[in-house]
Amino acid sequence: MKFSALFTPIALLAGFASAALPINLYYDEKLDDKSILMKNTSCASTQLAEKYPDFGSIPTRLASASVHLMGWNTDKCGSCWQIEYTDRQGEKHSLHALAVNTEGGRPMGTAFIKVGLSTMNELTRGRGRELIRVDAEAHEIHPQACLHRRP
């Protein structure tokens, strides 16, 4: 699913009640590595990095979002995203992930979110490695929804 990068900031300005945004969802096994230091992410100089020194200290699922969704070292570091995936049978699966890093965009301005393989497997019922990438939707929700526990 593709959309103009111009519309993304407008949708995010609506705050926590924003409409779901179409995204490409990938996995990156680095997001499962609890030893990665926050100082080595694009959120290094934020309050998130001050509170949580490494991925293992963060009490929830982690995500890395495209620059279209977060920007670099912004208040979007530590933002909470509800990600929803609809499988081939039409069954919806959703979870929350905390944004801890940002990366450059994809061609044509496609927004994306990367999650750890463990999170991708949770969302796709164990098919993360097989699927590699899925079309999904995401919208920003209140940060407290992500910081309650580690799944």
UniProtKB/TrEMBL annotation:
Record carries keyword Cell wall biogenesis/degradation: no
Keywords from the UniProt entry: Secreted, Signal
Signal peptide: 1-19
Subcellular location: Secreted
InterPro entries: Cerato-platanin, RlpA-like_sf
Major localization class: secreted
Entry's family note: Belongs to the cerato-platanin family.
Name assigned to this protein: Cerato-platanin
Species, as recorded: Hohenbuehelia grisea
